[in-house]
Amino acid sequence: MTDSDGTSSPDADDLELSDAELEALHDLQLGIEYVHRAYGTLLSFHHELGHAMDRMAAAEDNLRTAGHGSWADELQNQHLPAGAVSDQWTFELVEEFSAEFLEEVDRFEGEVREELADGLDHVSERRQKRRLRERAADDQQTVGDEQDTGPTDG
Questions:
Q1: What is the pLDDT of residues 75-131, one digit of tens each?
Q2: Domain boundaries, the chain
Q3: I need a labelling partner for 143 at 20 to 30 A (CA). Which of 50, 73, 99, 126 fits?
Q4: Model-level pTM?
């Protein structure tokens, strides 16, 4: 099998995997995809909170201009510099998640996939793709054969 970049990769059907190994690879692949989705959600949280803090900084200025210096001071000194979670800012949460979890589970998944499937990902999906395309080709062949012979009168 040739990948889109022209390199050769193992064929999913050539892999000698037990049903349990195939299921484990599939679950691990889905798990990693959900971890990446969670990371995307964490990045969205980081960006959304950043925009919220920008609005609160604008409110600080407007409160001060409107003569409410004590509220402006509270925003400036307590709320704006505070961390989102346990005194951490969201960029720190993003960095920690990436370095201490995302990179580690990505590495683990890659090692398992390399050992069990010669590095090939989406093995179940590749097999499903082949089966569905073969079925469609067989159905088209059957329809073509029926059209060639015409209807039978019985």
A1: 999 999 999 999 999 999 999 999 999 999 999 999 999 999 989 899 889 889 999
A2: 20-126
A3: 126
A4: 0.73
> What is the DSSP secondary structure assignment for residue 99, as one 8-state letter?
I
Q: Are 64 and 77 a contacting pair, CB within 8 Å?
A: no
In terms of Cβ atoms closer than 10 Å to its own Cβ (0-12, 13-18, 19+), residue 83 is: exposed
CA distance readout (Å), 10 to 109, 110, 119: 18, 15, 8
Asked if 22 and 123 count as a contact pair (C-beta separation under 8 A), the reply is yes
Place of tokens 């210096």: 69
Q: Which residues contact 101 (CB under 8 A, 6 or more apart)?
A: 35
Nearest Cα neighbor of 133 from 12, 33, 35, 26 is: 12
For 1-154, list the strands marked E by DSSP. Answer: none
CB atoms within 10 A of CB 88: 13
